[in-house]
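Q: I'm building a small set of examples for a reading group on sequence design. Run inverse folding on the following structure and report the sequence directly after it, with nothing in between.
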């Protein structure tokens, strides 16, 4: 998200407080307006549109609660509360505050809560954009295609969106599993509720339970405050558990119980909470093999896969490549404020290429070609790097004279492709941690 596009107002009758918070946000690249007169702040809130308002609770004449009541519906409000004002903070949350922060400030906590607000704004904007795209009768979201296999997927999305069944979305990395999940949500009766997605492989095993079900204050070292899990955040809406096959086996039984009862118990808490969630799951693994290898519970598999949608590889829907290429060209042109088009020989090359990274790889290849080209017409020669990379792979098997870093790049790419771009699995095979793998992927422009 463009940091300058987020409109922020900081309100506090203490000048030093507004200066401090403004400087903290400026270091993160954000601009913020400040106001030390709450009456003037009220006028601004009533007349202008703000994405985020950060306001002290207790101020002369007009309080933070008064400002909270005056905010626009989509504005996120973070309340600043002094010591001993926890009751007022609770009242603020009931009135619609996004979060609260204590005074004197813990700046790390403030930054975390501010970042969460920005993520929420970004998600809302994506959802609004998705909804407008989903309403287009020609496609679902950015899912483009006219092949028989994709038309079958579109029909399944339409049918399953109407009912509240748990859905498992299968497909290789890059085939568009999250796009399908979002399309299901936005065509369902839950469309006005939240859509929350979490990648089970991207979170350390010891933190995943807390991310799913939340935790109470002091539940473990570092739990300085209570936090809601994604099941609670998605209440009334849809939750996507991406790469669910990577969930630790001991946690699978807890997830099974939640699906059976729709009750969660945050870590460190004895309080049980009811949740109302539409559960979608996604995987790029062969779940039947994982069940046979005792790596995934069979009873959980049947719970999450009332309906299964299998997405085809891009190589299985070659007739969609010209449509997809045109879609990505328009998207990237708009992003770069250019008018770009593809020549016939380029479309022919792309249509006949072997896409191991599927639709995501196609989009990345087109964007790379656009960035490296000064012309507004992309021809076959603008994609010559595809052949160069293939030649690098051939050099490995034919003993070509490659530098060590080139050998490493090709080897990492080969292992990624052989394992469906499952980064957790690849890191284990290569004997490195995930952070190192992510650095290598970025360094070698493999994503």
């Amino acid at each position: 998200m463009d940091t300058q596009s987020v409109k922020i107002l900081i309100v506090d009758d203490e000048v030093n407080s507004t200066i401090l918070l403004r400087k903290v946000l400026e270091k993160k690249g954000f601009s913020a307006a400040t106001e030390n007169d709450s009456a003037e702040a009220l006028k601004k809130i009533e007349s202008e549109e703000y994405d985020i308002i950060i306001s002290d609770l207790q101020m002369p004449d007009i309080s933070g609660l008064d400002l909270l009541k005056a905010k626009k519906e989509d504005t996120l409000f973070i309340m600043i509360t002094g010591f001993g004002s926890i009751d007022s903070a609770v009242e603020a949350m009931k009135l619609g505050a996004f979060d609260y922060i204590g005074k004197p400030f813990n700046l790390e906590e403030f930054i975390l809560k501010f970042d969460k607000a920005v993520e929420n704004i970004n998600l809302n904007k994506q959802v609004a954009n998705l909804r407008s795209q989903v309403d287009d009768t020609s496609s679902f979201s950015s899912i483009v295609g006219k092949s028989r296999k994709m038309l079958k997927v579109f029909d399944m999305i339409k049918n399953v969106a109407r009912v509240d069944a748990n859905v498992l979305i299968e497909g290789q990395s890059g085939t568009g599993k999250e796009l399908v999940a979002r399309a299901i949500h936005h065509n369902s009766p839950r469309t006005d509720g939240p859509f929350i997605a979490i990648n089970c492989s991207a979170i350390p095993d010891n933190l995943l339970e807390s991310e799913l079900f939340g935790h109470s204050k002091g539940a473990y070292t570092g739990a300085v405050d209570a936090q809601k899990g994604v099941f609670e955040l998605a209440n009334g809406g849809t939750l996507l558990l991406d790469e669910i096959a990577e969930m630790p086996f001991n946690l699978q039984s807890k997830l099974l119980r939640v699906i059976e009862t729709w009750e969660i118990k945050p870590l460190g808490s004895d309080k049980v909470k009811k949740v109302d969630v539409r559960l979608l799951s996604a995987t790029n693994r062969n779940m039947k093999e994982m069940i046979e290898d005792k790596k995934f519970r069979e009873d959980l598999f049947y719970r999450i896969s009332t309906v299964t949608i299998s997405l085809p590889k891009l190589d299985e829907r070659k007739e969609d490549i010209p449509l997809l290429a045109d879609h990505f060209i328009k998207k990237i042109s708009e992003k770069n404020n250019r008018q770009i088009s593809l020549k016939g020989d380029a479309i022919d090359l792309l249509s006949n290429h072997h896409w191991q990274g599927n639709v995501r790889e196609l989009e990345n290849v087109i964007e790379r070609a656009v960035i490296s080209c000064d012309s507004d017409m992309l021809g076959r020669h603008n994609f010559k790097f595809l052949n160069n990379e293939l030649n690098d792979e051939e050099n490995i098997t034919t003993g070509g004279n490659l530098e060590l870093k080139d050998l490493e790049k090709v080897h990492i790419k080969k292992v990624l492709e052989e394992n469906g771009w499952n980064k957790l699995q690849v890191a284990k095979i290569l004997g490195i941690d995930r952070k190192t793998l992510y650095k290598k992927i970025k360094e070698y422009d493999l994503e």
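The longest strand covers residues 76-82.
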